[in-house]
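User: Sequence recovery, please. Input:
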C-alpha cells in the first residue's frame, strides 16, 4: 500500500474509508515496515559481509604470521644443523688428531724399545749372565 491510497481512504466519504485511527496507524505501519524492512535486511546483510571480510582478513593475517614464524624456525633449524655439523666435523678432526698422536707416540715407544732391548741383551750377554 502506498501513501496515496492511505490518503484516499482517509478522505473517503462513502464508507470505504478508515473507521478509526488504529486502521490508519496499521496501514501507515504496514507501509513504513514495507519500506523499512528491506532497508534493515540490506543493512544486516552488509554488516554480515563486513564482519565476514574482517574475520577473513584476521585469519589471513594470522596465517601470514604463522608462515613467518615457520620460516624463522626453519632458518634457526638450518643454523643449528650447520652448527651441529661443524661441531661434529671438529670433533672428528680432534679424534683423528688424537689417534694420530697416539699412533706417533706408540711408534716412538716401539722404536725405542726395539733399540733398547737388543742393547740390554747385548749388555747382559757381555756381562756374562
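Assistant: Recovered sequence (129 residues):
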Amino acid at each position: 500500500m502506498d501513501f496515496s491510497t492511505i490518503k484516499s481512504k482517509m478522505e473517503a466519504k462513502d464508507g470505504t474509508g478508515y473507521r478509526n485511527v488504529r486502521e490508519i496507524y496499521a496501514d501507515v505501519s504496514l507501509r513504513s515496515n514495507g519500506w523499512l524492512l528491506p532497508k534493515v535486511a540490506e543493512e544486516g546483510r552488509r554488516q554480515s559481509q563486513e564482519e565476514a571480510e574482517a574475520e577473513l582478513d584476521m585469519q589471513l593475517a594470522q596465517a601470514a604470521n604463522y608462515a613467518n614464524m615457520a620460516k624463522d624456525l626453519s632458518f634457526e633449524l638450518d643454523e643449528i644443523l650447520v652448527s651441529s655439523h661443524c661441531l661434529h666435523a671438529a670433533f672428528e678432526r680432534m679424534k683423528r688428531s688424537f689417534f694420530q698422536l697416539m699412533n706417533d707416540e706408540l711408534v716412538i715407544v716401539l722404536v725405542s724399545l726395539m733399540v733398547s732391548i737388543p742393547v740390554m741383551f747385548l749388555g747382559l750377554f757381555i756381562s756374562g749372565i
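The chain has a mean pLDDT of 78.
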